[in-house]
């Protein structure tokens, strides 16, 4: 009995003395394009889940109110001063962030991008949700399916400098130009709603009014997508203009029910945030340095490997439609 009590006391003493060491968490900043964006809030849920699972990690969720590189540069400046242990960022511009992220890295704070990339010189790795070419081609195909592969459509994108949207739109244009299947589809305009609901809505309205033969709007942004669908409804164009894009099932479900949206895609943002924290842990722990072939164990997501140019990729996007939307709208 006495021995048991002694063991208990020893365990308690050990716990108390070990506590300060455990409290020395790794502080990892998750910088998003902008605050108030449901997509990034879902990424944060995954990031916090990974932090919990790994233990000893504090994830600081932050970002500017509007999606600008300037806002993110200011935030990185202050994170350097705070001496965080790592930065994970979804970039509002591939190039203008490089000077400041390089500075962070010189000060021993590794930087990786996720979702929307920083140019290679300014980060260790980039965690992409999926292959960019695949995403772009899939968007054209979904638009084709919605409008019967014929007619005019326009894009309501996020901000004009966003790395990810610009890559996807580039591949959309390639697919339209090269694949004879899409010869009767015409991309008439690309506009930018800056991942702001009201601006995206106004851009979509302007397109509907400017192009009387418009058959579709493609919005490769979770903010611009529901805003464009609302514009189609408000203009009384249901059944004449279809909206597709990349969006959160929870934010788009209502428009699927009303047949403004017939199909759309997205990857799981929770998994994207979750994987990114495991990867940053691997970078801080010197397990990976961005070289091709390196591997990180990312918990329930399994192993993720580094490809050419420090690229890491999650998987193919999910496609949603009237059949499966109810299964997904409670997930993200
Ligand atoms: C918005 C952002 C983000 C993008 C999603 C689909 O939330 O622009 O970068 O990946 O849409």
Question: Would you give an account of this structure?
Answer:
By secondary structure, the chain is α/β, with parallel strands linked by helices. It has 2 domains: 149 residues, Rossmann fold (3-Layer(aba) Sandwich); 135 residues, Rossmann fold (3-Layer(aba) Sandwich). It has 11 helices and 14 strands. The strands form 4 sheets. The protein has a 6-stranded parallel β-sheet with strand order 2-1-3-4-5-13, sandwiched between helices. Strands 7-6-8-9 form a 4-stranded parallel β-sheet, with helices on both faces. Helix 2 crosses helix 10, helix 5 crosses helix 6 and helix 7 packs across helix 8. The site of alpha-L-rhamnopyranose (RAM) has 14 residues, from loops.
Give the key terms:
binds alpha-L-rhamnopyranose, 332 residues, six-stranded parallel beta sheet, single chain, four-stranded parallel beta sheet, Rossmann fold, alpha/beta, elongated, 44% helix
Nutshell version of this structure?
This protein is α/β, with parallel strands linked by helices.
- Helical fraction equals 40-55%
Number of strands: 14
Q: Give the helix tally.
A: 11
Question: In the CATH scheme, what's the topology name of the largest domain?
Answer: Rossmann fold
Envelope shape = elongated
What does the secondary structure layout of this molecule look like, with pairings?
Blueprint: H1 2-23, E1 26-31, H2 38-54, E2 57-62, H3 69-81, E3 86-89, H4 98-106, E4 111-114, E5 126-128, H5 132-147, E6 151-157, H6 163-178, E7 185-192, H7 197-210, E8 214-219, H8 224-234, E9 242-245, H9 249-257, E10 263-266, H10 269-284, E11 295-297, E12 303-305, E13 311-313, E14 318-321, H11 325-328
Parallel strand pairs: 1-2, 1-3, 3-4, 4-5, 5-13, 6-7, 6-8, 8-9
Antiparallel strand pairs: 10-14, 11-12
Helix pairs in contact: 2-10, 5-6, 7-8
The structure holds alpha-L-rhamnopyranose (RAM).
Alpha-L-rhamnopyranose (RAM) binds at residues 33, 37, 39, 90, 115-116, 158, 162, 164, 195, 221-223, 246.
